[in-house]
Write a structure and sequence with these properties.
This protein is mainly α and 519 residues long. It contains 21 helices and no strands.
């Protein structure tokens, strides 16, 4: 890293031509691989749970443990990048992520899988925010909007293709292959990135580490995630463990905020929230990701649990949301300086709300071709949500704080997805249990409807206890269907409410480096 005459770090000349294309490919591979692993496990949970001898609810720990670890590591990106250099940190993160993926594949118990997934999430923390930072640093100023669009496209499309790829690998081979697939991708991404960027390392700043802030972050976020993961099984606040975790989480996170705002070298730069656009942009991103990721988790679970789809068909039903997002994201990025960013994001939330209400109208008889159309339409919202919102979040952020800002915004994005997994699955199963209990109350041997239904079953050769088992299965399916509709309705309402929040941001929305933004 060379210096200007005034002592400030000199920015390397942007890459052009084939080198820029290769860098984009390498960063896209790394980003795609990391974000893919947030959803590739979703459709494989029933297979993982069955193979390891645990319940499907316990199987989701493989999802939330990854999100928890990534959420802890992501906000450390700014400090780590200054301490070791952005390029070294990015390449090392990719290499370790690839190694942890192999270990996840060979795990032979839930405990070892959750442990390796946690480590995988921990080393993945810097990958996504640094991929965004490295792209912006090496793209010409007039193409920074396109850089954001390409980055956003990989972040958005990867979780969509995750269920499809995960379903196919699980059904065609076995669930460990959802992790082995990362190995060739990770090796290629690391080699290309190091070859292109090793001479473009950022300046090293040896700041002291904020051990107290780091400890409070790990303790607070960890306690909160463990509480969410285990609350349903332990009957929530009737459990002393859940109460204890809740108290630890609240106290740790409260003291974390106080400490980080007063420490000279905070591990998490909370002063970024003083910037209006960063503050409201991150809030909008967090709530949007909560609902978007929650729907991505619950959709394949519903298809497999209630409608009897296998992992492959569940993934195929989930994937169409990526079609329009893939083609529209670069178009939005190239024209981002002409777009009214708040209006575009509001339009995206309207699309999301519409599709959530559309999902809520599904029934047990909804055919496959009817399932995919709202997923296709949702792709429009995906392209119009992530690209403009990332522009809003980073508007006015200087190059020296770009890694920290990207890390902190991605922290809340990751944390929202992790919380969504725990909260949405809890609400889904809790509402199913409630509806099941209510419907079961009317099923008695003396009820006319019950006698008629049992008589029809008897004509098909289903008698006695088998008949009541059939009734219970039907009630379970209907209860899950009602619960699924309620979850999607709630998400639709949240998306609608978030339209007002994005308008709290204020122009100008130009990205650092001179890229303009719409008002």
């Amino acid at each position: 890293m060379t210096l200007e005459s005034n002592g400030a770090p000199r920015r390397p000349a942007p890459l052009v031509g084939g080198q820029l294309a290769l860098l984009t490919l390498a960063v896209a591979f790394a980003t795609f691989m990391e974000v893919l692993d947030t959803t590739i496990v979703n459709v494989s949970v029933p297979h993982i749970a069955g193979d390891l001898g645990v319940s499907s609810t316990q199987g989701t720990w493989a999802i939330s443990s990854y999100g928890l670890a990534a959420a802890i590591a992501v906000p450390l990106t700014g400090w780590l990048a200054q301490r070791f250099g952005q390029v070294r940190l990015f390449v090392l993160s990719v290499i370790l992520f690839t190694l942890m993926s192999m270990l996840c594949g060979v795990a032979d118990s839930l405990q070892s899988l959750v442990a390796f997934r946690f480590l995988q999430g921990l080393v993945s923390g810097p990958m996504v925010p640094l991929s965004q930072t490295l792209l912006l640093a090496n793209y010409p100023d007039h193409k920074k909007g396109l850089a954001l669009a390409l980055w956003s496209m990989t972040v958005v499309v990867a979780p969509i293709f995750g269920p499809m790829l995960g379903g196919w690998l699980t059904d065609s081979y076995s669930w460990p292959w959802i992790f082995y697939i990362n190995v060739p991708v990770g090796v290629l991404a690391a080699l290309l990135s190091w070859r292109l960027l090793r001479d473009r390392e950022t300046m090293i700043v040896k700041k002291p580490i904020d051990l107290i802030g780091l400890g409070l972050l790990v303790l607070g976020v960890g306690s909160l995630q463990v509480m969410l993961d285990n609350g349903n099984d332990l009957d929530w606040f009737n459990s002393h463990l859940i109460i204890g975790l809740a108290v630890v989480a609240v106290l740790s996170l409260t003291y974390l905020v106080i400490w980080e705002l007063t420490d000279a070298h905070p591990v998490v730069d909370l002063s970024l929230f003083k910037a209006r656009n960063f503050r409201y942009g991150v809030l909008t991103l967090s709530m949007g990701m909560f609902c978007f990721f929650g729907s991505t988790v619950i959709f394949p679970l519903w298809l497999q649990t209630v409608k009897g789809y296998d992992a492959t068909w569940s993934g195929l039903a989930t994937a169409p949301v990526g079609v329009l997002a893939f083609f529209l994201s670069p178009l939005v990025g190239r024209n981002i300086h002409r777009i009214n960013l708040r209006l575009m994001t509001s339009f995206a939330f309207m699309i999301f709300a519409l599709t959530m209400f559309w999902y809520a109208s599904f029934t047990l008889d909804t055919a496959f071709d009817q399932l995919i159309w709202p997923r296709v339409v949702q792709g429009i919202g995906v392209a119009c949500f992530f690209v403009p919102l990332n522009q809003i979040i980073l508007s006015g952020i200087g190059p020296d704080r770009m890694a920290a800002a990207s890390g902190l915004s991605n922290f809340f994005r990751t944390l929202s997805g992790s919380f969504a997994t725990a909260i949405v699955t809890f609400v889904w199963t809790h509402r199913e249990e409630m509806h099941h209990a209510q419907m079961t109350e009317s099923v008695t041997g003396s009820a006319v409807a019950t006698q008629d239904y049992l008589a029809r079953l008897a004509e098909q050769g289903i008698n006695g206890g088998a008949g009541f088992s059939s009734i219970d299965l039907t009630i379970t399916q209907q209860a899950y269907m009602l619960s699924t509709s309620e979850v999607f309705w709630a998400m639709g309402l949240i998306f609608t409410l978030m339209i007002g929040v994005v308008w709290l941001a204020r122009p100008p929305f130009g990205a650092s480096g001179g890229q303009g933004g719409g008002h």
